[in-house]
Design the sequence.
């Protein structure tokens, strides 16, 4: 009798390291392979066709974290599979308001693990390394966002000590009826300085308000 394993993975030779510019295309490809899941697998397969068809990086994979004061990008590489990038995670460090005072905070995002390698502890290892790196860079607080139906990620972050701070939902009515949005809203184009002043007047006392709003208004993304 011949037995064939359903998965080719037995013991991947994983190496964790910092992101290099040569990893750009591999990390973009991983992001497409490891899009966040859904509680309805059949719906996920349907939506992936349209999301992937319209998804394109106009800049490099590290363009978003590069906008901030400092950043961390860690990758997991399988040395036993030709150096394939099988995991990646990012954090952006910035000075923002938390509990009524400006502090160094870190935003963790784009944690991706190749579906074929899930269950190998890659997500846990990347998260730990990113947290340690952010603390070493002086971050007092860490935060992240996760889709409400991404149970794997929610379980991982809960085990790491993250707590649910807020909930937000897309304005589905405006997405479904764009004509209604246009009919009830008026838009005025203002310059950068006026926009910064207006933003400050509304959000200056809110948590996560940036010390340097140029980071927001000068963003190419």
Sequence:
């Amino acid at each position: 009798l011949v037995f064939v394993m359903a998965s080719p993975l037995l013991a991947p030779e994983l190496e964790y390291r910092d992101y290099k510019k040569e990893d750009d295309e591999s990390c973009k490809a991983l992001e497409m392979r490891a899009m966040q899941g859904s509680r309805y697998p059949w719906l996920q397969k349907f939506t992936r066709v349209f999301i992937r068809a319209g998804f394109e990086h106009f800049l490099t994979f590290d363009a978003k974290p590069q906008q901030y004061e400092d950043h961390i990008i860690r990758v997991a590489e399988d040395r036993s599979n030709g150096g394939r990038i099988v995991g990646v995670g990012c954090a952006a460090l910035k000075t923002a308001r938390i509990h009524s005072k400006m502090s160094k905070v870190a935003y963790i995002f784009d944690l991706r693990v190749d579906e074929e390698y899930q269950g190998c502890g890659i997500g846990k290892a990347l998260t730990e390394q990113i947290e340690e790196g952010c603390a070493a860079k002086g971050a007092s607080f860490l935060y992240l966002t996760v889709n409400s139906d991404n149970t794997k990620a929610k379980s991982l972050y809960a085990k790491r000590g993250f707590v649910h701070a807020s909930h937000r939902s897309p304005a589905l009515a405006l997405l479904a009826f764009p004509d209604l949005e246009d009919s009830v809203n008026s838009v005025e184009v203002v310059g950068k300085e006026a926009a910064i002043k207006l933003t400050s007047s509304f959000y200056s006392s809110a948590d996560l308000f940036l010390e340097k709003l140029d980071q927001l208004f000068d963003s190419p993304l």
Observations:
- DSSP finds nine helices and five strands in the chain.
- Residues 122-136 form the longest helix (15 residues).
